[in-house]
Amino acid sequence: MDNMQETIWDNPRFRNWVAVARACQALDRTLSQALSGLDLKTAHLDMMMNIHRHPGMSQQELANKLLVGRSNITMLLPQMEKRELARRVPDKKDKRVLRLYLTDKGEALLQEALKIHLALVERIMADTPDNECDIVGAAMNRVVAALNADDTELPD
C-alpha cells in the first residue's frame, strides 16, 4: 500500500487535482462565511448569477448550467421567492415551463454579493499575473469539457 500511495502522490496530475479540489472547498467555505452577513448561501448566489445572466431561463436550464438535478432547483426556488429575490413566471407558449427572473430586490442583493465575491477573488489572486489566471482558466475549461463529453467514461 505504501508503494501505491507514493506512486499516486508522485503523479503530478493527481497531486495537482487534489490541490484544485482543496482550493475549491476552501473557496466555498470562505465565500459562505463572507456571504453570511447577507443571509445568502453560495447555492443561492450561483442561481442568482445565472438567472441574472440569462433572464427567463427555465428551471431545467438552470439545473443544467449548475450541474444539479431539477429537484435541487425546485427545493431552493421557494426560499428565494419567499425572500422576494426571484419569481417564476409561466411560459406563454408552454404553461408547464416556468421562466425564472430576479426581482429588483434580488438584483440589488446580487450586486452586493458580487462585490463580496469579487473582493475575495481579487484578494486571493492578487499576486497571480493575468496570464497565469488565463492558464488556470483554460485548464479548468478543458476539465469541464472532458467531464461533459458524451464519450467520457470512468475507469473500472
Q: Any overview of this molecule?
A:
This protein has about 160 residues and is mainly α. Helices cover about 70% and strands about 5% of the residues. The chain contains seven helices and two strands; from the N terminus they run H-H-H-H-H-E-E-H-H. The protein has helices at about 1-10, 10-35, 40-55, 60-65, 70-80, 105-125, 130-150, and strands at about 85-90, 100. It has a two-stranded antiparallel sheet. A hairpin with a 7-residue loop joins strand 1 and strand 2 (about 100). Helix 4 packs across helix 5. It is globular and about 60 Å long. The two termini are about 20 Å apart. The relative contact order is 0.10. Mean pLDDT is about 90; it is low at about 150-155.
Number of helices: 7
Order of helices and strands: HHHHHEEHH
Helix fraction bin: 55-70%
- Which outline best applies? globular
What is the first-to-last residue Cα distance?
19 Å
Keyword list:
disordered C terminus; two-stranded antiparallel ribbon; 2 strands; 156 residues; 7 helices; mainly alpha
Task: Give a concise summary.
The chain is mainly alpha-helical. It has helices spanning 2-10, 12-35, 42-53, 59-66, 70-82, 104-125, 130-148, and strands at 86-90, 98-102.
Topology:
Blueprint: H1 2-10, H2 12-35, H3 42-53, H4 59-66, H5 70-82, E1 86-90, E2 98-102, H6 104-125, H7 130-148
Antiparallel strand pairs: 1-2
Helix pairs in contact: 2-6, 3-6, 4-5
